[in-house]
UniProtKB/TrEMBL annotation:
One of its GO terms (molecular function) is hydrolase activity. Residues 5-32 form the Protein YjdM N-terminal domain. It comes from the Bacteria. This is Phosphonoacetate hydrolase. Keywords: Hydrolase. The keyword RNA-binding does not apply. Residues 50-119 form the Protein YjdM C-terminal domain. The keyword Nuclease does not apply. InterPro entries: YjdM (IPR004624), YjdM_C (IPR013988), YjdM_N (IPR013987). SUPFAM superfamilies: Prokaryotic SH3-related domain (SSF82057), Zinc beta-ribbon (SSF57783). Belongs to the YjdM family.
Amino acid sequence: MIENLPPCPKCSCEYTYEMNALVVCPECGHEWVAAESGTEGGDAAGERVVKDSVGNVLQDGDSVVVVKALKVKGSPSGIKAGTKVRNIRLVDGTDGHDIDCRIDGFGAMQLKSSVIKKA
């Protein structure tokens, strides 16, 4: 938790508040990610932390389980909840897809960390 929240970069409102990982301005509605002063220039410079749907930190090579049934374009069935995925790779994907993996029966695909949990 950030103790001294910065003012809004758009309207300079000083009444900003935290909402999950974002800082929000109540006057103009602008949302942004505020960098904590203690983490800048640390040992993980430039490295982002990816967490699963329950808050566990994920790393390359982890095994995960899909917690929500997913529709797959071009497939009559989707990926069922409870499907185990091994050897994931964390990537900077598009539209929040931050996990690269191979699922048996579907092939290579990207998943969002919000629909999986660490096995």
